[in-house]
């Protein structure tokens, strides 16, 4: 079991009908506490805007809230959508977190807006071409965190000298090429965008350029999981979760009839939405562990990031327990930053 790669969690901070975001935050705290207890390496929170079911619009605040109620598990953004923000503000935010919770903070960086075009242009007030500055924004951010600001007479305080580890997030070849060029770790969003996983990881590994951050590449690959006491129960939950995902993607919170949902599920659009969850480990704890092992080999991953899917907090917690036991996670293990051991 000691040769198993680390397992981590991605948490969307979801809330459901009749709930408020506060309910999602309570669940996020409980999930991180459970993940810490079981020996998972880290929990990441993603930036979404104008969503009717996702509360993590400001990952830095969610991280601060969860970090105050956990003790050792690493917490991070998976990720901050950098084109939405000034690199200076991001350096201050995550520098503050690192000063508060030293050695526990990660910063994953994405290029997508994390929202619709109207929200991006009219509410966030960001230009449509802001993503074109993603590479230079990362470099500027890196320099703030090192204490070597590229802007004369301006330092990020807090932020300067914290060296918060950066991860490039992606679902295409662009992120793979960029993280390889910068010598940064790479995280692929295969839990929602599976098609280019293998090609992107190969591009990243083949083109990786050693940097002062890391001498070797490091890949995190994400996937969906549901474990239960029986295979039948796991597959029942899996079907429910796929149905929920397809409905949410198409109707975006609009009230629908059973007939509309069934029609969608049998359509080409429904099949396309369902295919977003192609990488999905389902079954007993041992069956999911076997799937994780084969997926890790397929993805050439150094770490797996799990989106634990279940209809209730209890079922998700039990899923985590079964997977942790089958994988052989060590509750005494304290996760580190891969950039510190790959220099």
What does this entry look like structurally?
With 343 residues, the chain is of the alpha/beta class. It has a single domain, classed as Luciferase-like domain (TIM Barrel), CATH 3.20.20. Helix content is 45%, strand content 15%. It contains 13 helices and 9 strands. It has helices at residues 21-38, 59-67, 87-100, 117-123, 134-146, 173-182, 197-207, 231-251, 258-265, 268-275, 285-299, 313-327, 338-341, and strands spanning 7-11, 42-45, 74-81, 105-110, 166-170, 186-188, 219-227, 280-283, 303-308. It has an 8-stranded parallel β-barrel, surrounded by 9 helices. α1 (21-38) runs parallel beside α12 (313-327), α6 (173-182) runs parallel beside α7 (197-207) and α11 (285-299) crosses α12. It is globular, with a radius of gyration of 19 Å. The chain starts with 6 loop residues before the first strand and ends with a helix. The model has no long low-confidence stretch (mean pLDDT 91). It comes from Corynebacterium crudilactis. Keywords: Monooxygenase, Oxidoreductase. Residues 21-297 form the Luciferase-like domain.
The beta-strand count equals 9
Kindly state the mean pLDDT as a whole number?
A: 91
Estimated structural class: alpha/beta
Principal-axis shape: globular
Q: Cα distance, first to last residue?
A: 26 Å
> How is the main sheet built?
8 strands, parallel, barrel
The named CATH superfamily: Luciferase-like domain
**What top-tier CATH class fits best?**
Alpha Beta
Q: What are the segments in which pLDDT stays under 50 over at least 5 consecutive residues?
A: none
CATH architecture title: Alpha-Beta Barrel
Provide the spatial order of strands within the biggest beta sheet: 1-2-3-4-5-6-7-9
Total number of distinct structural domains: 1
Radius of gyration: 19 Å
What is the H/E string? EHEHEHEHHEHEHEHHHEHEHH
Query: How is the CATH topology named?
Result: TIM Barrel
User: Percent range for helical residues?
Assistant: 40-55%
Strand content: 5-15%
Number of helices: 13
Protein name: Alkane 1-monooxygenase
GO molecular function: monooxygenase activity; oxidoreductase activity, acting on paired donors, with incorporation or reduction of molecular oxygen
GO cellular component, one term: cytosol
InterPro entries: Bact_Lucif_Oxidored (IPR050766), CmoO-like (IPR019949), Luciferase-like_dom (IPR011251), Luciferase-like_sf (IPR036661)
């Amino acid at each position: 079991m000691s040769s198993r790669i680390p397992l981590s969690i991605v948490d969307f901070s979801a809330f459901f009908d009749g709930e408020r975001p506060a309910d999602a935050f309570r669940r996020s705290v409980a999930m991180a506490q459970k993940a810490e207890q079981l020996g998972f390496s880290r929990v990441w929170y993603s930036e979404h805007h104008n969503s009717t079911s996702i509360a993590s619009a400001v990952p830095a605040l969610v991280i601060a809230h969860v970090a105050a109620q956990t003790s050792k598990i690493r917490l991070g953004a998976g990720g901050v959508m950098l084109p939405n923000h000034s690199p200076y503000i991001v350096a201050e935010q995550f520098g503050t977190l690192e000063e508060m919770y030293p050695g526990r903070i990660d910063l994953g960086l994405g290029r997508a807006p994390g929202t619709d075009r109207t929200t991006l242009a009219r509410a966030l007030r960001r230009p449509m071409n802001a993503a074109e500055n993603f590479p230079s924004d990362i470099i500027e951010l890196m320099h703030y965190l090192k204490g070597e600001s590229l802007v004369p007479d301006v330092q990020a305080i807090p932020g300067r000298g914290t060296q918060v580890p950066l991860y490039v997030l992606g679902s295409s070849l662009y992120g793979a090429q960029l993280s390889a060029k910068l010598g940064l770790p790479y995280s692929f969003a295969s839990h929602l965008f599976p098609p280019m996983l293998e090609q992107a990881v190969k591009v990243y590994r083949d083109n990786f350029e050693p940097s002062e951050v890391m001498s070797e590449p490091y890949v995190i690959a994400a996937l969906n999981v549901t474990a239960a006491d029986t295979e039948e129960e796991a597959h029942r939950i899996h079907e429910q979760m796929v149905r929920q995902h397809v409905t949410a993607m198409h109707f975006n919170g609009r009230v629908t009839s059973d007939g509309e949902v069934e029609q969608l599920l049998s359509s080409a659009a429904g099949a396309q939405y369902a295919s977003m969850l192609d990488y999905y480990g389902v079954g007993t704890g041992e069956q999911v562990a076997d799937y994780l092992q084969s997926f890790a080999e397929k993805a050439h991953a150094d770490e797996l990031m799990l989106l634990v899917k279940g209809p209730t907090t209890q079922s998700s917690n039990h899923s985590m327990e079964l997977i942790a036991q089958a994988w052989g996670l060590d509750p005494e293990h304290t996760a580190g930053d891969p950039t510190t051991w790959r220099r």
